[in-house]
Each structure stands twice: as structure tokens, then as C-alpha cells.
Write a structure and sequence with these properties.
Elements: H1 2-6, H2 12-19, H3 23-27, H4 36-48, H5 54-63
């Protein structure tokens, strides 16, 4: 897509039409924060204590000072 815009000098709208996507999809920037650290810590905790469920893992994370909604687990 970027190739068509830069090399072929197509407009963004034309390049999106050729590929078959809406221009909004091309311009979309996620506003979500990266949760890589949280996911890594959850993997560590779950590998240490294999029998714990999401509720207990949530409590352990809260004790470590990581405030996260239980639905995100």
C-alpha cells in the first residue's frame, strides 16, 4: 500500500481502492497501551503456580502493585 503511494504516486484514496480497503483502515492508529510487560509477568506467575486461576493471579498482581482490570486477564 505504501509502495503504491510512494513509488507509483497514487493518492491514498486510489491506493486503498485498488487494494480494496477503506482509507480509514489505512490511517487507523491504535490508542491502546502495550501490555507486553503485563503478559510476560502473567506467564511467569502462571508457570510458577500452575494451579492458580485468573482470580488468584489478579490478587497476586495487585499485591505487586500492578493495577489491572480482571477482565484484561
Amino acid at each position: 500500500m505504501s509502495w503504491a503511494i510512494e513509488m507509483k504516486d497514487y493518492s491514498q484514496r486510489r491506493a486503498c481502492a485498488l487494494v480494496g480497503i477503506a482509507p480509514r483502515v489505512f490511517r487507523y492508529q491504535s490508542s491502546r497501551l502495550d501490555d507486553a510487560g503485563l503478559r510476560e509477568r502473567l506467564r511467569e506467575l502462571s508457570s510458577e503456580r500452575r494451579r492458580l486461576g485468573y482470580r488468584r493471579l489478579h490478587i497476586l498482581l495487585k499485591r505487586e502493585g500492578i493495577a489491572v482490570n480482571w477482565k484484561k486477564l
